[in-house]
């Protein structure tokens, strides 16, 4: 990237975020398209979702597209499956990434988060009040994201890589409603020796999701006043900024360590995070990865710091722990992670990731 374009990149990033926040801070809902912020990959989730500065694999299209320049092989494929809330919710991810040349890379990613086989019992009773079990129908509620990512090295500043995402969102609630949306992300990474820095700006122009409701399925059971039924609506996702830093250590000839932290900054109002205000909320995360001979890895992370109200009315701060292990050999990567879905959750989710890279 020429010298004159790099300042323009960061200036445009700042202006886009500031303008979008000011324009939408009143009308935009909180937690819009939140399924995109759960995260993908057992390595990442085992480290508490700390990835913006250190991601260098096929999951970069989700965490920070600039990380695609860290791919070691030309062709890279990855898949992840996890189940949340005792298997009720299925979370799947698949991606392909490739290096176009020594200075650029491309990736395509797909995310699906859904609940399947939900019973529709609205027609369980016939007009005579008799139960008819054969009238029960089943439907799914699912959110999809299709992400195209591009990354490129900077010719002006050594160690700097830049990336961008274009994403299409499809959300479906059986025959009741569906929505289409689109948005853009920008990311950057800078490596200085053993230090790594990252910034990820999600939904930089705000992400617009257009909902279309099915009046034939909803009007008679949900809204009786036809004039108040709005079959179309727009949902807006405000920008989110993730700042990260990490450092790697070579403990001995075969043992290595990586320590990293992220600050997840949101602009959609006060959230239940460690640092929050009416305008900005900051959610910190920290992750550690210990490696042996670049083959076996042990991981841990803390995130989702929240203030939880107890049954006696008192409140206390709680944090979500995460753990993971990984194995890598000859381009094959197998990762497992154990993560709670919330700081006060009594159940844990198991995440399994499989990846393969080759030339």
Task: Furnish the topology, listing elements before pairings.
Layout: H1 5-24, H2 42-46, H3 60-63, E1 75-84, E2 89-101, E3 104-120, E4 137-153, E5 160-173, E6 177-192, E7 195-202, E8 207-213, H4 215-218, E9 232-237, E10 240-250, E11 255-266, E12 275-276, E13 281-292, E14 296-309, E15 315-329, E16 332-340, E17 348-358
Antiparallel strand pairs: 1-2, 1-17, 2-3, 3-4, 4-5, 5-6, 6-7, 6-8, 7-10, 8-9, 10-11, 11-13, 12-13, 13-14, 14-15, 15-16, 16-17
Protein name: PorV/PorQ family protein
Keywords: Signal
Signal peptide: 1-23
Give a structural overview.
The chain is 9% helix and 54% strand. It contains 4 helices and 17 strands. The longest helix is centred in the N-terminal third of the chain and has 20 residues, at 5-24. 35% of the residues are buried. Mean pLDDT is 86; it is low at 1-27.
Task: Name some characteristics of this structure.
359 residues, mainly beta, Porin, 14-stranded antiparallel beta barrel, 4 helices, 17 strands, 9% helix, globular
Distance between the termini: 27 Å
CATH architecture classification name: Beta Barrel
> What string, H for helix and E for strand, traces the elements in order?
HHHEEEEEEEEHEEEEEEEEE
Amount of beta strand: over 45%
Signal peptide: 1-23
Organism: Nibribacter ruber
Protein name: PorV/PorQ family protein
Keywords: Signal
Q: Nutshell version of this structure?
A:
With 359 residues, the protein is mainly beta. 9% of the residues lie in helices and 54% in strands. It has one domain (5-358): Porin.
